[in-house]
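Sorry to interrupt, but I need a hand with the structure work. Leave the record below and I will have a look:
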Amino acid sequence: MQTNTCHTSEKHKRNGEHILISLTYIGKNSEKNNGVELTRILEQWRRNNEQSDITSALVINDDYLLQSIEGSRPVINEVLAKLINEYSHLLPHIVEVKEIEARKWDGFLIKYLTSSAEDEEYALKSFSAGADFNPYLMKSTQITSFIEAIFEDTESRACP
């Protein structure tokens, strides 16, 4: 006879809460609002992500954003639905969805790409497919490598 704890554990696993997912997407600020509005949206996302046990790495400039988020399968599915239904003005495009063994990001990391020569040169020479930084022109491997390279100094060491 199985114990009650086993039933609870199996019920908990039924929706995939025990499976970690990484979702990477790109977006474009299609409404051309100033950075203040986008900053407000991102701050709200940060608070929601913390409450939902989501970790994230976000790279943004005045026109585009790249984000890699990690969390349980049901939570990532909720985030994806919200992206599509509530943030369609960001023109989100999914780059990669995969199961992961451990989180790569620690908290909600943000890197704002400035028009400085250093940021621009690094982004364009190393990862971009065009003359300007535009993640829509980049292959998925370029996007994921770019996010990892930007945050390589701040990546957490995943716990076993």
Notes: The helical segments are 4-13, 35-51, 73-86, 117-126, 140-150.
